[in-house]
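Ticket #4471: structure export looks truncated?
Reporter: QA, pipeline team
Priority: medium

Steps to reproduce: submit the single chain below to the structure queue and open the exported record.
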Amino acid sequence: MDTVLQSLLWKEWQERKRTFFVCLAWILCGLVYVVIYELASGYRTPVARFGSVCMVYGMFMTVFLAMRVCLSEVTQGTLTFTSSLPVSLSRVATMRMIGGIVCLAGPIFLGSILLAVLLALGILEQVPARRAGFPSGFSIREAFQSDAC
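Actual output as written to the record:
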């Protein structure tokens, strides 16, 4: 790997690691909410509930991370230093975009892995998909009773 690329990645990690861990904490808190809610209520829909947590996270964190990617050099006063580096500004911008994407998608990916582990271990259960021909409000219990008859 190019040493300039390594330094840009290192610089980006140093600037984004706090943001990454805040985003990871948000997703992990959402996952804890999903686990507690599913164990308490028994609806058996953790994937949909985690998807809702990720949608809310995505709405807010996309705006926050976009502001951080676009304006952090200007607000911190480091744009003149960055433009004096022997690297093109487009390469710096590319690294900043990659850092923002990792901060946005990385926590969702890690939370999904943890949810998959919880499902694989049997700690949480996912309800089976709806059968064809049943409306969305059809009760699962009614479906099993009609099969038994």
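Status: closed, not a bug. The export was complete when the record was re-opened. Leaving a note from the reviewer for reference: The chain has a mean pLDDT of 86.
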